Amino acid sequence: MVFSFAGSAHAAVRLPHVLSDHMVLQRDAPVHIWGWAEPGEHVRVQLEKNSAETEADRIGKWSVYLPPHAAGGPFSFQVQGSRDAVTVQDILFGDLWIASGQSNMEMPLEGFNGAPIQNSEKEIAAAKYPEIRMAMVPRAGALSPVDDVNTSWAQCTPETARKFSAAAYFFARELHQKEHIPIGLIDTTWGGTPAESWTSMETLSQPNLAPVWSAWANFSRGLADTSAMQAAEKHDAAAAQATGKPAPRAVFHPNPDSWRPASLYNGMIAPFTPLSIRGVIWYQGETNSGLERAPLYAELFSGMIRDWRMHWHQGDFPFLFTQISSYRSTPQEAWGVLRDAQRRSLSVTGTAMAVTLDVGNPDNVHPPDKQTVGHRLALAARALSYGESVHYAGPLFAHADAEGNTIRVGFTDTHANLICKGPECVGFEVAGEDHTFVKAEAEVAGYTVVVKSTDAIRPKYVRSAWPNAPEANLFDSDGLPASTFTSEERVAELLPLGTALTHD
Description:
Elements: E1 2-5, E2 24-26, E3 31-36, E4 42-47, E5 50-55, E6 61-66, E7 72-80, E8 84-101, H1 103-106, H2 120-125, E9 129-136, E10 153-156, H3 158-161, H4 166-179, E11 183-189, H5 201-204, H6 210-221, H7 226-242, H8 256-259, H9 263-269, E12 279-283, H10 297-312, E13 319-322, H11 335-344, E14 351-354, H12 370-384, E15 397-403, E16 406-411, E17 418-420, E18 428-431, E19 438-439, E20 441-445, E21 448-452, E22 461-464, E23 474-476, E24 485-486
Parallel strand pairs: 2-8, 8-11, 8-12, 9-11, 12-13, 13-14
Antiparallel strand pairs: 1-8, 3-6, 4-5, 4-7, 7-8, 9-10, 15-16, 16-21, 17-23, 18-19, 18-22, 20-21, 22-24
Helix pairs in contact: 4-12, 10-11
């Protein structure tokens, strides 16, 4: 970014950090340029033959729109104030995607916390794509929406890709190779964070999301003890080391900023809502899998998607998300409930879900195969956003019909045949009126699966891939796995009897 100055000292014309050298601006969409200057100062923006002029308002803000621009570049644009100017260089027009969520989206190409990325070093060495541009957003919560964060853009090289989101990189690589256009990625992620922290106050103030605030109140009450607990854990670890014993497993103590409702929306999403974008990729849900949080996730996540679209003012842009995978976790978490909530969120227009049960690691919450994650998200983008005729979704539950002592399950996926990879179909359960599920036999019958159990004489409900780390093998013949599902309708029915829906 080039600055030029003239005249006496004053507040220089200024742009947000995201509007900077090497960035990608969204093609074929209004080009929004905004920033700050002296109140009342005249500002002129020039991009090739197009220009726009305005004056900074009474608090120094200004904003202009230029006509849509086709993919290509590099270009530059200049912002001229009354006494100084800023030139932004090496910008490309292409497709700009927001990549957000928690640690499985955050996980960089080099891996972290002892968890590797599959073929990491080979993938890093090959990450040479000058028309893929990447911006990393620093972790920061805020009590109210902020208008700028300290980020910058870089070309995709082995050095820059190493620290960048692996799932987002593999997604962008496939789109770049298939669509032959520049791709911009904004990596705005924070591991171990709940969806409510990524959702704005406007949406969280709705009555149906009131339990979010009860959960936060209970969480807040425990903050006073955090320092004492950490000191005790440190003491226990030192004592174990002194006696040659392994240190006790450390307890996760989240940063309060990262769990406060709306905090990460304010600090890590709001600054980018003035940008024109192509869409969002999202990988989150593990932190909302607790028994007290999971039943609310369908409403919360659907509300968050609508919330972001409301603030971006760009209609129903594609919102593509990864279903959480397979992990044993603890009995205090309900990954089946969470995965099913994600499936139900597909009722929101313009969404798609990448199922990853088959590439999870039951013993590690950070599975190494992010190539498959990126590929399945890219398949969804190619279908929903780029209009390609590609098959992108595996079998999704459509209906369950009781037929005597069996239940016939129908799926939305009729593009490819249903198959069970293995000698028999596994992962299915049935239940009667009491919602007590038992293991069931299943077999594929055309585009349906027929499920039965000798332990359930008149089954009413059916579910599949329900445990935290399920054994499930239903796919379509294109190799895409079926999602977790239950035919139960009410959220309260999805958890064991007596489970409280509020924090302990």
